Amino acid sequence: MPDPKTGEFRGNRNLKRLQKISQKKQQEEIKRSLELGLEAAESVNDRTISLFSRGHQPAFAGINTFLKATYCEDIRKVGDYEAAFVGIPFDTGTTYRPGARFGPQGVRRISAVYDGYSIDGAVDLFEELDLCDAGDIFVIPGNIEKTFDQVSKAVSHVFTSGAFPILCGGDHSLGYPNLRGIAPHIDGNVGIIHIDRHIDMQDMDMDERMHTTPWFWTTNAHESVELPTSHRDHSHMHDVGLANCPPKNLVQMGISGWYGSRRGSEVARERGSSVLTMTDIEELGAKGAAERALELAWKDAKAVFLSFDIDSIDPGFAPGTGTPEPGGLLPREAFEIVRLIAREGLCGMEVVEVSPPYDVNDNTSQLACRVMLDVLGTMVVEGKLGHRAKVTQD
């Protein structure tokens, strides 16, 4: 829709904004590519092309990192970046179809098609955000608790170093250790917006903490909450819950369908967390649902964490996931919701349950990548992340 005052379309306004952003990094990449990759054959007219691929092009060439960002091999230097992609290739917590351990590599592979430049979002991530790929956390296949300890320590390191954590699973059991790596460093309550088809809030599943249980453990151990009678002592579980993640600040969006919500629904009701079903989203609209979620998650909170399960998107668009449930979000609805949520700022985000063995044409991995890009781009535009002012000319 054109601006009512000027008659100018949004696209034209965005093009003008993008024109003000410097291309310094583009120029630096060309120089680096020619230095490290040597000059191209004499028959190549474009002398910015190198002999060996060392930059973003060709998209199908090179060594995969997320968005072809710098690989932060020395993780002690992750704080030199404003945001870090972190792979968590763990799917021992899945209860149906495995394969999410290949999610980080699937997302990295398809991310090569993107250059970080968005007319619709009026953002150039390559120029406006110092992004790195921190590689994968060393998970322990077959051992959920040791993996949780590895994940929490790793996420804590990234977060306290100052980089915004972009956490890519792996299955949804990771929601708990991911937040356990962030919440203790927030001086105040942390809200959680969880977008999913499944409520993932039961205490145990087949006698373990699985991908159906993360929000039980995250929001546990509060004065207003009594442990359910079904809970039994498990001495290997050395902690229960995060003191500053109260149930009242947990908002779950997109829940519905015919699987996986029986016990979790009881816990949600007992604790007073908020559940917006797909019917609620249809009635409120994507914008109305996001606004309601923000209101609840941010109430008396100092920060909000976004947990996005790719199975929240209808499996007609995102078939590559462990527990598909028809009737989910359309991609444009999902993008609108995460952009609205990201406008207020986030302390971290996770995208989980991408299972490339069940994917078609990398569609699911691509949607996961787009969720990440839309969140990052929105936060840059809103001044919550990156350094827009430094690269924008008056």
Describe this structure in words.
By secondary structure, this protein is α/β, with parallel strands linked by helices. It folds into two domains: 18-56, no CATH class; 75-229 and 237-391, 3-Layer(aba) Sandwich (Arginase, Chain A), CATH 3.40.800. Helix content is 34%, strand content 14%. The protein contains twelve helices and eleven strands. A nine-stranded parallel sheet has the order 1-5-2-6-11-10-7-8-9, sandwiched between helices. A two-stranded antiparallel ribbon has the order 3-4. Helix 3 packs across helix 11 (363-381) and helix 9 (278-298) packs parallel to helix 10. It is globular, with a radius of gyration of 21 Å. It starts with 9 loop residues before the first helix and ends with a helix.
Largest sheet: 9 strands, parallel
CATH architectural category of the largest domain: 3-Layer(aba) Sandwich
Number of helices: 12
Strand order, sheet with most strands: 1-5-2-6-11-10-7-8-9
Average pLDDT metric: 91
Spans of 5+ residues with little confidence (pLDDT < 50)? 223-238
Question: What's the domain count?
Answer: 2
Overall helicity:
25-40%
Give descriptors for this structure.
394 residues, alpha/beta, Arginase, Chain A, nine-stranded parallel β-sheet, two-stranded antiparallel sheet, globular
Brief summary of the model shown:
Helix content is 34%, strand content 14%. It has twelve helices and eleven strands.
Please give the structural blueprint:
Layout: H1 10-19, H2 24-37, E1 70-71, E2 83-88, H3 103-111, E3 117-118, E4 123-124, H4 125-128, E5 131-136, H5 144-161, E6 164-169, H6 175-180, E7 189-195, H7 214-218, E8 250-255, H8 262-271, E9 274-277, H9 278-298, E10 301-309, H10 331-342, E11 348-352, H11 363-381, H12 388-391
Parallel strand pairs: 1-5, 2-5, 2-6, 6-11, 7-8, 7-10, 8-9, 10-11
Antiparallel strand pairs: 3-4
Helix pairs in contact: 3-11, 9-10, 10-11
